[in-house]
Design brief:
about 15% strand, alpha+beta, 3 helices, 3-stranded antiparallel β-sheet
Length: about 120
C-alpha cells in the first residue's frame, strides 16, 4: 500500500495540541492586557534621605509625582539633586521587580519557550 489516508502527518492529536497552544496564547494575551492595566494603576514608592525625597512611579515606570520635604530644601541644590536621583533609582528598581514578578506569575506553568 502507499499509505493512503495518512495526510501530512498532522492528525487529530496534533490538532488538539495546536488548539491547546492557541488557547494558552489567548490566555496569556488576556492576562497581559489585565496586567498592563494593573501596572498603569499601581503607585510604587522610591525614597531617599530617610523619606526626605519620595518619587512615585507606576508599575511600568511612568513617573507620577515627586514629593520633597521642606527639610530637604535646606540641603542645597547638589544634595537635593542626589536625593532625587537616588529616590528615582529606588522607584525604578522596585517597579521593574514588581513587573518581573507579575510577568512570572502570568506565565508560570504555561511552558512557554523564552519566558
Amino acid at each position: 500500500m502507499t499509505g493512503k489516508g495518512q495526510g501530512f502527518g498532522f492528525g487529530l492529536g496534533k490538532m488538539k495540541e495546536l488548539a491547546e497552544a492557541f488557547k494558552k496564547a489567548q490566555q496569556v494575551q488576556e492576562g497581559a492586557k489585565r496586567l498592563q492595566d494593573e501596572l498603569e494603576q499601581m503607585e510604587i514608592l522610591g525614597e531617599s534621605g530617610g523619606g526626605l525625597v519620595k518619587v512615585i512611579v507606576s508599575g511600568n515606570q511612568e513617573p507620577k509625582r515627586v514629593e520633597i520635604s521642606p527639610d530637604a530644601l535646606g540641603e542645597g541644590a547638589e544634595v537635593l539633586s542626589d536625593l532625587v536621583t537616588v529616590a528615582m533609582k529606588d522607584a525604578y528598581i522596585k517597579s521593574t521587580a514588581t513587573m518581573r514578578e507579575r510577568m512570572e506569575e502570568l506565565t508560570s506553568g504555561l511552558e512557554l519557550p523564552g519566558f
